[in-house]
Write a sequence for this structure.
DNA sequence: AATGAATGAGAGTTCATTCAT
DNA sequence: GATGAATGAACTCTCATTCAT
């Protein structure tokens, strides 16, 4: 009986991932998931008490790991450790990706309307913070300050959007990592140089 | 009577822009727009014959200008003119932004489910093309080829997403233009150098 | 001013006749009539207090003449005069047709949903009565009775439906009259003979 | 559960037949059908995916049989077989009537606005064709031609309208058949004689 | 545990009618 | 007298959720 239950749950999970991945949280329909997973609408509600609960069960742990990693630095001064913290986040993302590539893609690309729609914003804000603090630290060493915050926010936003696309369109962990690191290199390293020389 | 009608139309337009801006095309409701603009559901249908027609009236001309500009180069060889074509597109966007900043923000950020949802993709594809052709032209001069296409797609995608955020969050034309040009500089110029030296 | 009023009223009347003639009472829309007659919805309600009232004004007099003619015989024994009463009804119809061919066509063919939708039924019942009494009179002279009522009802119904089609599709009074009389001849005279000989 | 479902479906079907029978396709409302069949609006859409689909399920097979029978002769020369083809159509109608008297009545009398509204016209055209070819064949044997087409159309129209009324008002198959054959006899046989002698 | 029928709120849309101007 | 904007009820249809079986 337990076996049967797990088998049904797996079917629901798999088809729900497909449905959410294709149509997004709001556009997905419980009816559609039930149909495709060869079970009944009512039975889905035996396993998950609502559409939101189902989404939470699929995406929640990925969200929690990601956001949990970020949140732990909320009240912490980073200074010269900022950059390494960020590279650790990439490691974290890669671990999540290697175990749950579909879920992380859905979390980033299809969460509109769900309780996780703020995820990308949290990520962007964190990236912005890391980047800002990195630069501030480097400039402070040279006794200088930098002005613009928004351009860093934009770069961070771009990075996050790109990561979202990468995890959606590429499925090989090695390639995904290479692409992400490439982008960080392009977006951040170059910009630090640029900011350094041009005082944007 | 005339001014009354215009006043109501303005209220509808303003509240519709708010509603679409907050909830996106699909999430917005005619009922909600009617309520907030202090008129009746039926009356909105005096002004616009459907939800789609309302959206079209708000966003259509902005879409047409933007996509029209891009489409004119569909069958045209660009070669060394690629970059200037792109800068002219920025000029076009800035003109649109100066007249219709809210609309262009909605077009980019909230068109999912509408007839304009392909807009960002068109823009990304065009940016990818411009960037690819620019690089190919420069490399061909030196007798070299470049390999990776996806990274350029990601950069282009990032640029477009960033522009979407810029027009959403900033309302001063001068600043918007500066930010966009900054990003192009960061994203494209630097990357060309990078690609040039590292053979990505 | 009076002249102006009449001109508008005429436009409304003409376009309303077209609209009712094309779409039927229920399918016709006040908005459509207003649009085509180059006036406003509200103004139509200055002349007619409702859609029903408008229909009444267009079709009522034709209905009243027709039904009035029929009703006058409600409590009257007809006996041997039955047939001539019916031919007089045809004369009445022809007079109406010659003055108001459009209206009589609408009355017969497009009154569903209106207060006049019973018109054809009244007409059919009257034709049935006339026919029944004519036959009964003829048979009683020979000391016989006839049985079936429904077949006469059907013939009468057919006659009325045919007249409805004739006034809809033919516009020349002479031809209309010839066709109607032809049908009466076919439907009635022959059937009397048939009933006479076969005791249906 | 199964019997419950069937019971509800039956209630919906019965009440839908009543509603369509009383108000016609356009006039009938899903709300009304839901209310009268003691279920909810939404539940009707569990059984039928649209108003049109409901109507199709009720009336479609009857329409298909009838129109299918007629359509098979579209490209076929009939000559002296014309009359027997028509009598076979009557047999077909009687079979349909014996199984689905309500449905055939609705098809003929209440299909305006639905996809089946052309049914009576198809039937009339077929009857007109049969009648015309029968007469032409008979006259050609005697080396004569006949002139009027419209009167045959009217007779055919009358016949079809009468059949529509018969199936609406009579429910005994034997009587329905007798009435239809009686009418064909009256309408066609007599008229052939008439046309024969009088050159209408 | 499983079913899927049933619900009900809310979506977009239409239209006769009213009423302030 | 004329306007047409405004109303509101009714329409078809969808969907997450509940519940009797």
């Amino acid at each position: 009986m337990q076996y049967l239950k797990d088998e049904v749950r797996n079917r629901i999970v798999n088809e729900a991932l497909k449905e959410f991945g294709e149509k997004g949280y709001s556009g997905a329909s419980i009816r559609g998931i039930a149909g495709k997973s060869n079970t009944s609408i009512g039975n889905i509600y035996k396993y998950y008490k609502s559409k939101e609960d189902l989404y939470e069960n699929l995406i929640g742990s990925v969200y929690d790991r990601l956001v949990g990693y970020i949140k732990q630095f909320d009240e912490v001064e980073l200074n010269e450790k900022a950059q390494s913290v960020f590279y650790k986040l990439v490691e974290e993302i890669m671990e999540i990706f290697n175990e749950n590539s579909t879920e992380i893609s859905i979390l980033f690309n299809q969460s509109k309307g769900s309780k996780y729609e703020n995820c990308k914003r949290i990520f962007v804000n964190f990236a912005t913070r890391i980047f800002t603090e990195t630069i501030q630290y480097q400039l402070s060493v040279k006794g200088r300050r930098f002005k613009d915050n928004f351009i860093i926010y934009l770069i961070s936003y771009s990075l996050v959007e790109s990561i979202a696309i990468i995890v959606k369109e590429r499925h090989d962990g090695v390639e995904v990592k290479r692409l992400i690191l490439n982008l960080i290199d392009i977006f951040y390293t170059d910009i630090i140089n640029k900011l350094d020389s041009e005082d944007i």
